[in-house]
Amino acid sequence: MNAAEITLSPTMTPPETPRVVSADELRIGSGRTRRFVGLEHGARISYFFVDNEPGEGPDLHWHPYAETWIVLEGIARITVGDTELIARAGDTATAPAGVWHGFKNAGEGRLQLIGIHAAETIVQTWAD
Q1: What is the DSSP annotation of 110-123?
Q2: Which of 18, 27, 102, 105 pairs with 75 at a CA distance of 20 to 30 A?
Q3: Rg for the chain (alpha carbons), in Å?
Q4: Could you report the per-residue pLDDT of 85-128, keeping only the tens digit for each?
């Protein structure tokens, strides 16, 4: 992109008052997993912060957009289509739009990861 294509003028006055969204506001039920839906917070991405015990994780599902995982702690066994990946703390993996995927905690300790959804809302279709 060159300067002639930029149509946004920067400002010091945001359209809404910036705020911190607390972890408790994002918590799903009484569990440790949190869900951030971008549309509710003026963001164009959404994410899950996942904190799973060994063996836990979502079964196969797909989205109409890409999902990217960043492993913060532990070991994840990630399935993308017919490929299985092993990701460890610091690793990143992505599932393209429209491809079945899921992950499980493959380690002996906790798995913490962030699953970034390239959309301002979360849309999931489960394999059942």
Answers
A1: -EEEEEEESSSS--
A2: 27
A3: 17
A4: 999 999 999 999 999 999 999 999 999 999 999 999 999 999 98
The one-letter amino acid at 31:
G
Judged by phi (left if over 0) then psi (alpha if -120 to 50, else beta), residue 81 lies in left
> Rounded CA gap, 59 and 80, in Å?
11
* Token digits of residue 100: 């079945």
**CATH code at 24-126:** 2.60.120.10
d(CA 85, CA 126): 20
Higher pLDDT, 6 or 96: 96
Which helix or strand (DSSP H or E) is residue 103 part of? strand 101-105
Residues 107 and 112: their CA atoms lie apart, in Å, by: 11
DSSP-assigned states of every residue in 73-100: ESEEEEEETTEEEEEETT-EEEE-TT--
